[in-house]
Amino acid sequence: MKFRIAIYGLLLLGLAACDTPTGGPPASERYHIDAQRRADIPMRMLDAVNRLRQAAGRPLLVLDPALSRAAQGHSKDMSKQNRPWHFGSDGSSPLQRVAAAGYAGAFLGETISETYETDLETIAIWATDPGTRAVLLNPQATRMGVGFVQQRSGKLWWTLVTGGPDPRA
């Protein structure tokens, strides 16, 4: 009986850790994406990534609408699933999403995040991790797409996708 109570207690503790509309930092400290920020974020992220690339001697990226559509769709999907991972709820891979969005070039990488951090804080965090930094600094990359969704709780779902030239060209 005590074992069962302990298991139920652990389950309740796990459920309490799940995101709710009141989860995360206090409302007064939450980063809120208003209409103006929404419009500015893709270029801010592109500028931040290009500063990193320039410092590393890599060619600069250009924002790509098809890659951004793929990234935005994935951010929405992660938000609905409430879990950060590289596969869509339909089982789609990043490569499949990029192709479905109409990108004719080569898919090169994807970084994702579930966070309460701003766009620039998220780029800074990605820049410190070897795996995500490799995506940001891939010397073959020429294009980038960004997508994000903010839930009522303030939680943000970020996706950044990189691509290169069409390998068939």
Overview features:
single chain, 169 residues, alpha+beta, 4-stranded mixed sheet, globular, disordered N terminus
Short description:
By secondary structure, the chain is α+β, with helices and mostly antiparallel strands. The chain is 46% helix and 17% strand.
| N-to-C SSE string, H for helix and E for strand | HHEHHEHHEE
Q: Structural class, judged by helices and strands?
A: alpha+beta
End-to-end gap = 68 Å
Question: What number is the mean pLDDT?
Answer: 83
Low-confidence stretches: 1-22
Number of helices: 6
- Which percent band covers the strand fraction? 15-25%
Tell me how many strands there are. 4
Shape: globular
> Helix coverage percent of residues?
40-55%
Descriptive account of the structure:
- The chain has 169 residues and is an alpha+beta fold.
- It is built from 6 helices and 4 strands.
- A 4-stranded mixed β-sheet has the order 1-3-4-2, sandwiched between helices.
Topology, element by element:
Elements lengths: L1 H15 L18 H21 L6 E2 L1 H17 L12 H7 L5 E10 L3 H10 L1 H8 L5 E8 L5 E9 L5
Parallel strand pairs: 1-3
Antiparallel strand pairs: 2-4, 3-4
Helix pairs in contact: 2-5, 3-4
